[in-house]
Amino acid sequence: MAALDGLPPLRDVIQRHGLDAKKALGQNFLLDLNLTQKIARTAGPLDDVTVIEVGPGPGGLTRAILALGAKKVVAIERDARCLPALAEIGAHYPGRLEVVEGDALKVDFEALADGPTRIIANLPYNVGTQLLVNWLLPGRWPPFWQSMTLMFQREVGLRIVAGADDDHYGRLGVLCGWRTKARLAFDVPPQAFTPPPKVTSTVVHLEPVADPIPCSAASLEKVTQAAFGQRRKMLRQSLKPLGGEALLARAEIDPQRRAETLTVEEFCRLANCL
Ligand code: SAM
C-alpha cells in the first residue's frame, strides 16, 4: 500500500536491510500499514502519550503509532540488525522515537515511562506471556501504564480474558481478572504476517482496574498454581499442600468444588486465608 507517512514500503525496508526473519526471536513481521494502524488505534487516543513498544522489528507498528500522533515511542528491540531501519523512522519523526537495544525481559519499564504511558506490541511469542505477567505485577498500583494493547497467539488471548467456568480459565485468567479489565479486540490470520505463523493471532486490550481486591500476588500465585495444577480434582485434594479442607473452611469455599469454578474474588479470598 502507499505508505501513510511517506516512508518506503516495509517490504523494501526489510530487503534493503537484510532483515530475513529469525524464528528464535519470534520474528513474524506485519507489513500491512492498515493493519498496524488498526492495532495502534485499539489502544485509544495517543496524543500526549508515551508508547512503550517491545520488538519493533522493521517498524511497521512503530510507524503507525507515530503517524497516529504519539508524543513519543520508546521501543525495545533485541535484534541489532533492525536498528538502521528504526533509525530511518527516527529521522522522519525527530525527537519522537527512542530505541533501546536489548532484552525486554531485563528492562526496567517503569523507568522508561514518561507521563501517561500505553504499551503497544506485536510480542515475540516466546517471551510474550512472561512480559505480560511482569507488567501485571508491579508493587505499585495503579501501574505505570494506562493500557496494554498486545498481540498474542489466539489461544493465549483466550486464556487472558477467560473467567470462571470457561475452558481457558487458569492462572493467567485469574491474574488478569484480578488487576485488569481485558478484552479480545480482533483476530489476525496467519497470512497477515511475514513469515506466517502456524496459528491465528489475536489482539488483546487490557486496562488496569482502579481498586483490585487487596491480596498478595505471591499468595494468589501459590493458590492458583496448586488449584490449576490439578484442575480436574476437587479443591480439598489439589490444595492439600496448602492446608486443604482447613484453608477452604477459612475461606468459606465448598471443598468439593474444582479450580475452574472459582471466581477471581474467591481465589483472592483463598490467598488471603493462606
Ligand atoms: N513489531 C514488528 C511487527 O509487528 O512487524 C515485529 C514483531 S515480531 C512478532 C517480534 C519482535 O520482537 C522481533 O523484532 C524480535 O526481534 C523482537 N524480540 C524478540 N525477543 C525479544 C526480546 N527478548 N526483547 C526485545 N525484543 C525482542
Report on this model:
Keywords: Cytoplasm, Methyltransferase, RNA-binding, rRNA processing, S-adenosyl-L-methionine, Transferase. It is found in: Cytoplasm. Belongs to the class I-like SAM-binding methyltransferase superfamily. rRNA adenine N(6)-methyltransferase family. RsmA subfamily. Specifically dimethylates two adjacent adenosines (A1518 and A1519) in the loop of a conserved hairpin near the 3'-end of 16S rRNA in the 30S particle. May play a critical role in biogenesis of 30S subunits. Its EC number is 2.1.1.182. By secondary structure, the protein is an alpha/beta fold. The protein folds into 2 domains: 10-208, Vaccinia Virus protein VP39 (Rossmann fold), CATH 3.40.50; 217-273, Helicase, Ruva Protein, domain 3 (Orthogonal Bundle), CATH 1.10.8.100. Helix content is 37%, strand content 18%. It is built from 12 helices and 9 strands. The chain has helices spanning 10-16, 33-42, 60-67, 83-92, 109-112, 125-136, 154-161, 171-179, 217-229, 235-238, 244-250, 264-273, and strands at 29-30, 50-54, 72-77, 97-101, 117-122, 147-153, 180-188, 193-194, 201-208. The strands form 2 sheets. The chain has a 7-stranded mixed β-sheet, sandwiched between helices. The protein has a two-stranded antiparallel ribbon with strand order 1-8. The protein is elongated and about 65 Å long. The protein starts with 9 loop residues before the first helix and ends with a helix. The mean pLDDT is 96.
